[in-house]
Automatic annotation (TrEMBL):
Residues 72-132 form the PID domain. It comes from Chlamydotis macqueenii. It holds the Pfam family PID_2. Keywords: Cytoplasm, Phosphoprotein. This is PTB-containing, cubilin and LRP1-interacting protein. GO terms for biological process: negative regulation of D-glucose import; negative regulation of insulin receptor signaling pathway; positive regulation of biosynthetic process; positive regulation of nucleobase-containing compound metabolic process; regulation of ATP biosynthetic process; regulation of cell population proliferation; regulation of mitochondrial membrane potential; regulation of reactive oxygen species metabolic process. It is found in: Cytoplasm. Found in a complex with PID1/PCLI1, LRP1 and CUBNI. Interacts with LRP1 and CUBN.
Length: 159
C-alpha cells in the first residue's frame, strides 16, 4: 500500500539520475499542503510484466473501481530515494494523447519506508526486463538497436 502523490508533466527526452527530483518536490509540496496524510495509504501499487496497476482505495482501505493502468514499455525511468523523502518511488511515463501526441508525466507514491520504495524500484526493473525480453523474442523490438543500449536507458536508479 502506498500514498499516491499524483502526477506532473515533465520535459526532456533524456532521463538520467536526478531527473525526477524537481517533479517529486512539486508533488510533495502539494501533498503536504493538502495535509492528505490523515489517511496515508490511498492506493495499492501492483507491478507486473507488461502492466503496472494503481488501485485507488476508499477511506476504509478497500479497493474502489477506479484503477490507473500503465504499460511497462512506456515507462522511461523509475527511481527511489529522493532528497525530499527517501520513501518516495517515482516513474516517468509516456502518456499518449487523443491526437496521438504524447507527454511525459512523472508519477510518485510515498511508501511506508525507504526499503519499500527500493523494493518497488527493483520490481519495476524486473518487470521491464521481462517485458523487454518478451517484446524482443516476439520481434516487436528489432535487433538493429543493441539490447544493452536500450535496457541501460530504462534502468532503475534506486539510489
Amino acid at each position: 500500500q502506498v500514498t499516491y502523490l499524483g502526477k506532473v508533466s515533465t520535459t526532456g527526452m533524456q532521463f538520467l539520475s536526478g531527473c525526477t527530483e524537481k517533479p517529486v518536490i512539486e508533488l510533495w509540496k502539494k501533498h503536504t499542503l493538502a495535509r492528505e496524510d490523515i489517511y496515508p495509504a490511498n492506493a495499492l501499487l501492483e507491478i507486473r510484466p507488461f502492466q503496472v496497476w494503481l488501485h485507488h482505495l476508499d477511506l476504509k482501505g478497500e479497493a474502489t473501481v477506479h484503477m490507473d493502468t500503465f504499460q511497462v514499455a512506456r515507462i522511461a525511468y523509475c527511481t527511489a530515494d529522493h532528497d525530499v523523502s527517501p520513501n518516495i518511488f517515482a516513474w516517468v511515463y509516456r502518456e499518449i494523447n487523443d491526437d496521438l501526441s504524447y507527454q511525459m508525466d512523472c508519477h510518485a507514491v510515498e511508501c511506508e519506508s525507504k526499503l519499500e520504495a527500493k523494493k518497488l524500484a527493483h520490481a519495476m526493473m524486473e518487470a521491464f526486463k521481462k517485458t523487454f525480453h518478451s517484446m524482443k523474442s516476439d520481434g516487436r523490438i528489432h535487433r538493429n538497436s543493441s539490447s544493452e543500449e536500450v535496457s541501460h536507458e530504462f534502468e532503475s536508479d534506486d539510489g
